[in-house]
Give the backbone structure.
Amino acid sequence: MDRIWPIGLSRRAAANGILAAMSSNTLTQPATSAFDEAKRNAFLERAMNDLAAGYSGVLVTVGHRLGLYRTMAGAGPISSQELAHRSGCNERYIREWLNSQVAGHYVLFHPTSETYELPAEHVPILADEESPLCLAPAWEVPASMWFDQERTIAAFRSGEGIPWSAHNERLYCGVAAFYRNSYKAQLVPLWLPAIKGAVEKLRAGALVADVGCGHGHSTILMAQAFPQSRFHGLDNHTGSIEAARKNAGTAGVADRVTFSIANAKDYPACPYDLLCFFDCLHDMGDPVGAAAHALSALAPDGTVMVIEPFAHDALEKNRGPVARRYYGASTTLCCPHSRSEEVGLALGAQAGPARLSHVFLRAGFTHFRVAQENPFNLILEARP
């Protein structure tokens, strides 16, 4: 419930009063003359912004699932009544949702006409589901984290794992939608050319394994780009494999793509010219074992391509919103899944190049390098 502010008292003044009251509490006020109120206030503002973002995220998913952002995209200034009419929703709810979007600087408000506008610059992030910048579906992932919080708390206490299949279903669609667009923008034009000899083999006709393929978006993108090659998508999550098969049919590549339920250490060695791990190696209980099996499944001149979340080797360098998101996912999703499997190494989503290199060298590879990197990804190459 919103606080009713006294007449003549600004929100900032009221906030300062609350801070003063909090400071008088001996449990929150360190008994030292070095206590810096400015630092405390700065951190309080940061924490309040995070809390506001959590509230806002719920409404972003509401806007996404009701198509409100898509309806506003390119429409120019629009009234709450018109948006309600076009979206088939109740005007009063729409108006309150719009006001929340104005407060968060997601939507513009024009006081004279009492209309709202989604800026063109915000469309790729909120409304265009094919954009690599679209973040609206990504809120499904923290939604699943909240649903699974009791499992996470129990895992913290017991040390046991949480398998991927045990999470709320919103996790799977959120991860698939978020990564699909990133792969679509980068996999074929940027990442594959960074892997030595990969594009040439794929054009000529290669056999490719996509280990931990999820809903199959990465497999399908490669199949669409390289029709002479054949692709095997592998994942141990039954629901994801079912979705991948449907996606392949829709994309028209079912003639050269197969999807199978398998874990990272028991799929057949064909052998493969290219074997890929897309954002999944750190989730595995035994990444060294997975890498060793990949080595046994490769052709003599084959290559392993690994995409991992970007991270520095030093913890103190892994700061900012990207690292925070990755550590959050790692704590609640990646490490718990790893601990649910054999070995349970829990490499983590911020492993960094040095630890990832160690995994492949221990598995018997002789060549490992960072082929490319960006603020979100490490593109890695391993060869026998």
Residues 11-126 form a domain with the Arc Repressor Mutant, subunit A fold (CATH 1.10.10.10). Residues 37-65 form the longest helix (29 residues). Confidence is low (pLDDT under 50) at residues 1-16, 18-27. Residues 103 and 293 are 52 Å apart (CA to CA).
